[in-house]
Amino acid sequence: MSPVGTPDPPPEEPNSAWLTDEELADVRRRIPLLYVEAVPVRVDGLGVVTSVGLLLRANAQGDITRTLVSGRVMFGETLRDALFRHLEKDLGPMAFPQLPASPVPFHVAEYFPIPGLSAYLDERQHAVALAYVVPVTGTIEPRQDALEVTWMTPAEASSASIHAELEGGRGTLLRAALASVGVLG
Amino acid sequence: MSPVGTPDPPPEEPNSAWLTDEELADVRRRIPLLYVEAVPVRVDGLGVVTSVGLLLRANAQGDITRTLVSGRVMFGETLRDALFRHLEKDLGPMAFPQLPASPVPFHVAEYFPIPGLSAYLDERQHAVALAYVVPVTGTIEPRQDALEVTWMTPAEASSASIHAELEGGRGTLLRAALASVGVLG
Amino acid sequence: MSPVGTPDPPPEEPNSAWLTDEELADVRRRIPLLYVEAVPVRVDGLGVVTSVGLLLRANAQGDITRTLVSGRVMFGETLRDALFRHLEKDLGPMAFPQLPASPVPFHVAEYFPIPGLSAYLDERQHAVALAYVVPVTGTIEPRQDALEVTWMTPAEASSASIHAELEGGRGTLLRAALASVGVLG
Amino acid sequence: MSPVGTPDPPPEEPNSAWLTDEELADVRRRIPLLYVEAVPVRVDGLGVVTSVGLLLRANAQGDITRTLVSGRVMFGETLRDALFRHLEKDLGPMAFPQLPASPVPFHVAEYFPIPGLSAYLDERQHAVALAYVVPVTGTIEPRQDALEVTWMTPAEASSASIHAELEGGRGTLLRAALASVGVLG
């Protein structure tokens, strides 16, 4: 498997206390970093998940991989603010995500820089991600370069091929998401 | 405390296989009945619960009590259909409830006809209710007689006085609802 | 797929108010029945699920199928009492199950007598099952005829072949169980 | 209210990559730190919570306050390892905690250094704590100085006076814990 990772934050960060690239590189090998991740979904009028959105992204090596909405929580930022910021960053300002009323994630994914400690791998760091399923009701306009959102049915998203295409173990995270909303095939 | 109960279904039931009043009275003392309950809430743009809706209803004895959206699940009916039907019955057709993507309730309330077996009491029957927090985005127009919806802040809803006014132990259910969305005072 | 079903209760029922076979057959087609289901697991010292127990059972047609611990909730019986009773019935009195501190199930499975309404099918009835993952610490001694408990790793339990062998859609329920404890392959 | 905080780790840390006191003081004001918290409970044979354990501790100002089991997650450490380490640190090696099979917390508490952003306050840092209810089956022998464990009933733990005695907003966390296991008064 190619090296994978959780995406870096964009340059315009909300908090001036944040670290320089050099400091961040140092911290990444010394404490676990807190992330949020989101599986965007479309739901019908009764709340049933009808489709699931996956991101196509070029990773650091230029490989095209599938991934989920994901990003760091900044100093002084609430989990909801972080979740909203990363959803807007990856899906655009018109996605109108419905953040969950409950702050409890459906799953906690522990990414380690070496394989075998968990189902999740991030070669750059130890990251702990709180993961949420988030219905979106608006229009998707990915804002970052080389990024596309693909919508598929829950059955397609449950397949072994999609599982294998997701980076860093997120195939497992996606299945947990589908199971948590009762649509895992 | 006055006798309390979960409300009877309206006459126009979705399934013709349903029981006559006499049969129902018999079944009520012989098997547990399945209910859904909902705590309607308003949320802000980040999903934070900003207000909570409680129903005012006259019970069988003519006393005015507070209660939650509640009702039986019928034969052949999905939990989502039952939840939607009872929300519409109690809040009107323009409430636009956002049913949860996950079918897992935040709490399961076990109502017994005799006190002491659980925190919940229903003198008429043994009922097991799956309870959900449901954001509503539209206009509330209670359709049943003598029914009103009161909105209050999470702090007010957390108070001891509201706890005492809810029938059948639903004060405990309301607190569990507030805790599940992180706003219990 | 062969006809499937949730098992009948043993003759010695805890509550004399329970129905005759004839009455039960009638009720089954008129109201949803409440069930509990359990996925027995072994855990290590840190709570990680290391193996999963599935039942082998002959169904009404004499076919051998895999299933989970499952059974009705009786009138006047708490969910915990029902869960304990069915665990003891299927795993024997020395299994020492550790019932969860939380009464909230990891999943709610809705069984309908006709296919297509949900992932779950029970030709005899509409049943709603609250499902729990239950660590067992003792010795398994199945008490019912023609019943055996097979232990397997989470990876084996995640496989497509096991998924297909479980009756009534319980392959989906098993996957949801594995996902809820973070070990779905 | 007196200044409060989440406790510092003991000197003997599991990972040599960890920061010096000076580096830690710097990092604390620049990124959110990841914590685990635990509410130790006793359960009966059916899993019902019968008593709740709270810690008595002298905080940095020498005030005696109540708190929960709490501590940082180290680099390279799983959540389960961190939870077990802090339970052993606060309750002793013979407590025999039963870590949950599910890694999903019952609540996520966001501690900020300034009041008003959430229900939780930690003057030293921005900390995000994943909180778990953990049954313990053995003997409690607090190992740290000036630390005692007090057991009380769920009803006592639900009281307003206990709520007020817990530091940093953990009264709210305790109520959420009690609600999650169905015993909030």
Describe the protein.
4 copies of one chain form a homotetramer. The first copy, chain A, is an alpha+beta fold and 185 residues long. Chain A has one domain (21-180): Alpha-Beta Complex (Nucleoside Triphosphate Pyrophosphohydrolase). Chain A is 22% helix and 28% strand. Chain A has 5 helices and 8 strands; from the N terminus they run αββββαββββααα. The first copy, chain A, has helices at 21-27, 79-91, 154-157, 160-165, 170-180; strands at residues 33-43, 49-58, 64-67, 69-72, 107-112, 120-121, 127-135, 147-152. In chain A, strands 1, 2, 3, 4, 5, 6, 7 and 8 form an 8-stranded mixed sheet that branches. Chain A is globular. Chain A starts with 20 loop residues before the first helix and ends in a 5-residue tail after the last helix. Chains A and D meet through strand 5 of A and strand 5 of D. Chains A, B, C, D: It comes from Pseudolysinimonas kribbensis. Chains A, B, C, D: It holds the Pfam family DUF4916. Chains A, B, C, D: InterPro entries: DUF4916, NUDIX_hydrolase-like_dom_sf.
Which value, in Å, is the CA radius of gyration of chain A? 16 Å
Described by its quaternary structure, the protein is homotetramer
- The secondary-structure class of chain A comes to alpha+beta
CATH fold naming of chain A: Nucleoside Triphosphate Pyrophosphohydrolase
Superfamily (CATH H level) name of chain A? Nucleoside Triphosphate Pyrophosphohydrolase
